[in-house]
## 1
Amino acid sequence: MKFSAIEILQSSAAELKQAWLDSEPNVSGGHEEGGFIVVDDFGVLSVVRWEKGTQNEILLPPHRNCFVNGKDIVASFHTHPNTGADFQQEPSLTDIRAARDDFDLKGEFYLGEFVVSQENVYLIEPSGLFSVIVKTEEIFER
Ligand SMILES: [Zn+2]
């Protein structure tokens, strides 16, 4: 079951918004929140949240062979809660390397890692390329 980026974002919108709020977005401070978006045998998507991160780092729980809790991981995400102009909103070099070099995030159905910032939702593909997928408010206002 392969989903498009927009399908994944739309069906996970409530959980993504909750993670965004939990990360306490502000011009300074805040901390990263994130998770895996997984699919069950019936094609139903759900979110498995990670432990709270720090201001610019978050650790992933084990996800061997692109599975967690027996379900295929179709995407992962984390927030960039610092909304000040001094902070980088787009994926950092560390983000890109982490996504690209994670051999357990190369599953058949894995699309990539979403980075949710105040303005845009980015997608880092397993190749390391990233692009803007949608304006964050378009997802959150649904
Ligand atoms: Zn990041």
## 2
Amino acid sequence: MQQRIRGPAELAQFIRPTDEEARAIAALSERFRFVITPYYASLMDPEDPECPVRKQVVPRLAELADPVGLADPLDEVAHSPVKNVVRVYRDRIAFCVNNECALYCRYCLRKRMVGDEEWTMKRAELQIALDWIRATPEIRDVLLTGGDPLVFSDERLEWLIRALREIPHVEIVRLGTRLPVTLPMRVTPQLCEMLQRYHPIWLNTHFNHPKELTPEAARACDLLTRAGIPVGNQSVLLAGVNDDVATMKALCEGLVRMRVRPYYVYQAQLLEGTAHFRVPIERGLELFRALRGRTSGFAIPQYVLDTPYGKVPLDYPFLKGREGDTVVMESFDGRIWRELNPLD
Ligand code: SF4
């Protein structure tokens, strides 16, 4: 964390930044800062600006040309009963415990807050949020997110999880973290030993491309799963990064080999500065349709659009309709099947 890359000169030790990338780093320094871990930078192709790892974290001037992007497309501020708690559903919350990540993804949904001092959570503010959870008995599932909860020290994270465990109605604690991808050495045996004292702990991480499935990342996920923590993956569908069938299939099958369940793939939001990442939903539907029947069912994540009203599953319509007592459906390879299915 201390050795993170913060400017073009440091970045040049890993890649040859194009003029456009260098100008974008300067032009965007006030709007959404640029920080990368040396580990993640080492995964970049030094010569190819189209490298899918590089595209996720190195600024582009295209970020300045997005006429429709919003700062808070999910209206999270309006869903926040206390600072950094987002409640869309009755029984679960996202608790943004800090504003720091190991690096800043250019398409981050919370770019309005990550890396911004205003959103730092002091101990007293964490306590206010804990008090709100304790006073809200419907909350059975707490997602610790941010920012990234694994940026906390083990001691601070344990303090927080222990406090949640002392609330009788909190049944599940989930961690949303990209550190297994961006700084996998953060996942230590000591961390896992601490976490497993507070089960049930679940964890979702965020791999977007097969290049990120390194031996270091596999070791981090292995330590977590051996500690009894189910590890899932949430990707974002990103143009030029993972929006083709071969890449998505390689990502999902690689995750399964690491015993990480491909869980969600999010449609990129109407978020400021991200027009160049968005893929039309119809293309996304075709992509996931093409995976069906061509890999294990549990290797296919649910494609979803997050909205201020909650997640909407985006499914290719394999069910085509009804003909009398039969329903008509399409198989994965386009053949039509009629299943007898009377209504009464
Ligand atoms: S790791 Fe997650 S929260 Fe942090 S910048 Fe990336 S997408 Fe945003």
